[in-house]
Amino acid sequence: MKTIFVSVWCVLCSVILLNCNVVNSNTSQNTNQNSQLQREWTLTAFGSYSKSDLAARKAQINLTERAENGKIRGTASMGCNSMFFTSEFKNGGKVKISDVGSTLKACQDMKLEMDFSEAFRNMTTYSVKGHFLTLSDDSGNKMEFIAADWD
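^ Heat shock protein HslJ, sequence as received from the core. Prediction below:
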């Protein structure tokens, strides 16, 4: 009887330990993916805007909020209004941008902000290579970012 109890106990402990390992592997993969994405990103290429125009307006997105249920609440700035959105970076390089909104200040030149807001909603894929983030839509339009903490 004691031998059966010890055998069953060992099997149960083994199953519990194996399950913990599987959970940690998945969590570390998601954590690694999020750690690459969850930073501030400076917009360096978008449409016909020059890099110097984007830099002068301090065009950026901020993905530093903690991920909840696979979604990251983010903010963006194109030089006038504060923008906010929800992003969901999925396996296979897919991204979903939703709940895009902004403050309602009237500024002299809001073309970049309006163009960015319209295009940003349509981004469907992403890639992170080193300190570069690229967002693309189904028509081949791209937004390129560099990590703000990269010198």
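The beta strands are 40-46, 60-62, 72-77, 82-90, 94-102, 125-129, 132-136, 142-147.
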